[in-house]
Amino acid sequence: MTLAARIEHDGIRDEVAVEEPLEIRVGGEALAVTMRTPGNDDELALGFLVGEGLIDEPRAAGPPEDLAGNIVEVEGPLLREAARRRFYATSSCGICGKGALEEIAIISAPLPDGPCVERALLAALPDRLAQPGFEKTGGLHATGLFTPQGELVTVREDVGRHNAMDKVIGRALLDGALPLHDRILCVSGRLSFELVQKAVVAGAPVLVGVGAPTSLAVRAAADRGLTLVGFARGTRANVYAHPQRVR
Length: 247
Description:
The chain is an alpha/beta fold. The chain has helices at residues 41-51, 101-107, 119-124, 132-137, 161-174, 193-202, 215-224; strands spanning 4-9, 12-17, 20-26, 29-36, 61-62, 71-74, 87-90, 94-95, 141-146, 152-158, 184-187, 206-209, 227-233, 236-241. The relative contact order is 0.16. Residues 82-86 and 92-98 have low confidence and may be disordered.
């Protein structure tokens, strides 16, 4: 896994985050392209497909034997053949052209009660994210999967915040840990609609972020029963939806 690349600027050597395209294929057919940091590409592809409601169990995934480069092949078929279409995702905007609240309602059920967690613990989770790539480059996002006691289970970094979450969810799928009803997801940046969608479809009842939520993220969280926590820093955190899980 290559998180950083060396460059020169102003007469000095520096490290920047690696960003390269990845084509996701299912059953030999190209489905999506995303700009990502190479590494854990099988997890990324599987997590992406889970978040779109296209698979719900582990699949074989990896680079095609006859092709080199930025391609990952996932075993088919998809659960929803009608959804088989080409996606394009960038490191900044995520999946484009999607429906919003209606789409989440189609591919996910409202979340169960889940754990009840101290506000101070939720506020402290971002500091527990291991981010060696960010420390080197300042250009990578991270997603961590935590227990209700604050123990870090899995963490992944990527130039795209949605990719980092896809990798964590893909790992959970491979480990037989979905749905994430007894887990907490924490992200290193802002809370967008796409991250709420991915958390809800994966079954995580609580999503925490260092930054601010968007209006659509709050609406989606409220509609699907997700506890949405933003501005988690130090000992403080704001709860934007379903505060019943926060003590």
